């Protein structure tokens, strides 16, 4: 078994972040914000039940905030811009909670079955923290089958079959 605990605090000056907008070819637009931070803990636990069954987990708990964010909204009626200021607002696409767990079963030599669960907490689509522009938390499960062969002078050839989001979440 292994256990890892990491704490972090990152205080940014001019952090380049996503702003929730896309350009005319569909790429995400980024902008620089003057003061922002990311702080939290990351926990990882790995446990071997037997030589044929293993569990790998991780969890991240964090706060990802912009200390002061100015949003400019175009007013197409009169050609001006409206300034909205937000204090201690969430950074777009930065959930406060995320984690995963992988159960690996090795029923026979060179063959493994992995069942993975991934949780992503609430995320906002922009940097305003507006409840109307958020993605709800979600949990997805994936299944992966792997088989490896070790021919002659080659180290390994692996075959994988992956099924993503098997419960159609």
What do these coordinates show?
This protein has strands spanning 2-22, 28-50, 53-75, 80-90, 97-108, 111-120, 123-124, 134-135, 138-149, 157-163. It is mostly beta strands and 169 residues long. The strands form 2 sheets. Strands 1, 2, 3, 4, 5, 6, 9 and 10 form an 8-stranded antiparallel beta sheet that branches. It has a two-stranded antiparallel ribbon with strand order 7-8. Strand 1 and strand 2 (28-50) form a beta hairpin. The radius of gyration is 22 Å and the shape is elongated. The mean pLDDT is 94.
The helicity comes to under 10%
* Strand percent estimate: over 45%
Shape designation: elongated
**Class by alpha and beta content:** mainly beta
**How far apart are the first and last residues' alpha carbons, in Å?**
31 Å
Number of helices: 0
Average pLDDT, to the nearest integer?
94
- Major β-sheet profile: 8 strands, antiparallel
Residue windows where pLDDT falls under 50 for at least 5 positions: none
Query: What integer value in Å does the Rg equal?
Result: 22 Å
The total count of strands amounts to 10
